[in-house]
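INTERNAL AUDIT FORM
Audit reference: QA-55
Scope: verify that the stored structure record matches its stored sequence.
Auditor: D.O.
Record contents follow.
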Amino acid sequence: MPDPIAPQDVRAEIKPISPPVKTSVPPKPNYSRADFIGSKVPGTARDNLVRVAAAQSADRPETHIRTSHSVAELQALRDETRVGREAYGEGLVNRFHKKTMTVPEHEQAQEQAYAALSEKIDRGVVSPASIGADVLHKLGVTAELGTVPTTQEGVVATVTAEVRALVDRGHITPEEAGDITGEMAKFVKAYQAAYPDKDIATVFELTRDNARKLAYQIKMDKNMFSGSDHGNLHLLRGNVRFAEQMIADLKKLGLAVSAKDEVLIRQNMYDHDLGYAQGAAQSKEAFDAMKDHPLLSAKFIEENKAYYVAKFGEAEYDALRYVVLNHSYPTSEYDNGLRNSAGINTKLIRSITSTVDSLGVTAETKVPDFFRKRETVKSLMKIRLAMEVRGTDDGKGNKVLPAELMDKYKEELRAIARSSGESEERVRGYLTSIDNFMNEMTVDLTLGQFAGVVKEVGAVKNKDGKVVPRITMQLSDVQALLGNMFGGKVETQAFVKVMSDFGMDEFTLQRLVQYVGWRSCGVIPATTDDDLVFNSPEAHFTINDHIAGDGPQEEFGELRGVMKGVAALSARSEINELLRYFGEGISAEKRYMIPRIIGAFIGRINDKTSPAEVKELGELADMLAYDGPTDMTDEGGFGMTRAQYANKRLQSYLTQNERDFLGISE
């Protein structure tokens, strides 16, 4: 099995690869200029255009990434008054897709959404054709190839030198640079195996451009908090690593995965999320535009058709555009044996790419760097606890905080960003993200990702003999903690999302949620070695029943400690358990147990509360258990029973310890 990218590999020097690529002149693609006309842009502000030097492109016209947008045009595409949420309008994915669609129906809807993208391009709110120029502008590099290396080792060395220079400029970190250069060394080797007749200039240009696209996405990802990373964690440590594991398993099962299949899978990983970097997707609360990112990424590929045809071939170009466009809708078609005249299996490429992408739901591959800081997690826990006791329903089933309280915690996050010690550029990105994207949904998504880890991804034959993904996930030791403090949504959402993506039926999903709830309440001990196995026609899931404490979760030990510290000072878990117990009705058996239940409740909160708070909470527990009429009314003037009053009071109850932690007074 190919080695995944590991932390120790990140810092290692890249060893030269041999032998050198054979030199040959690729045939010119049989296209005219008209084939490559994309979005129309004004013929003004051309003084700052970055163009490929004529001497470099004379023998291969039109086969470089398009870079014909000026700095002024690029700036206009990030002007929120022109491309912001209001200007962008309704998201196309939201318009054409429905949750109940089958995968073929989703693909049809995606093509309709893709066709409708032209209207937004014509209005100038997005321009996927500008991405090539934006990469140059944001990274401070030029399109000229310069001195082309003569060997494969030279390609790797030259690309590595440029990537390391990006570290010096503050665009990326040394660790991120290590991820990129390590991956590019693998890519060069894979590309040589798939296309041995490509000349060294082609190998160099493609590898250099891929490294730049990765660095660009890592850099631009820091300008937005969408609840998950779209940089090196997701693209390389998640998607590429999982794809390598799947390919190894497929080969063991006797399935053919060609060299071209492998290199196109990698290329899809580099390109599929480019749309997230468009200005419209990074403007304030631009969730519709973000959801349209597959359309924008696919359009970038189309706008650079000649480039992709020259580097891979026409059939490969078609496969890349199709797979990038549909990567959000997982399929499991690995063993159909359909291989086109170019020697690629598009359905296999589509299946692997969409499968591994959908598995980016847990902390080791999706929690952004900013949320891996101790103080940041502390602030997230403040927001989530405040949501639990001071949040109001937004009409869509989500809890939102009063604006002034959310602003208070945003300022905490800004202070963390300013004192992070990271480059000025990255700090500016964090501040932009906090202002534009930090909300209650981001908090829920981020904390939920700490509740588990995807341990391994492979392939297996199901009972019907069909090859499906084999996914091993593991609960972390904060899963029960989050469940007890904040209910069943936060700590199960990552697992439920993945499983529903692969066609898991509602009954099975309910069983998973019930299982997690039992674990949260201690009904199922955390020490059992039994695994929970779920199967659907499209996937095989194994959820380890023991707590994750090794592997990728080790780096989160300190962050889990922060969460445990909050739970240790808060009475929220005990109050929620009391509310759940009596909220199910009081049977004769429960009535017999009331004194013991209330006594246990008081015993558990004793160290977290003052004597006065213990007395008040005990009285509320009595009212909850021994219901009866009162003369109290709610906000609408309706009468309240003892249990109704106690329930309402307990849901918003804060101890002095909690108020001190949250920094609020009452």
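Auditor finding: record pair retrieved intact. The chain has a mean pLDDT of 84.
Action required: none
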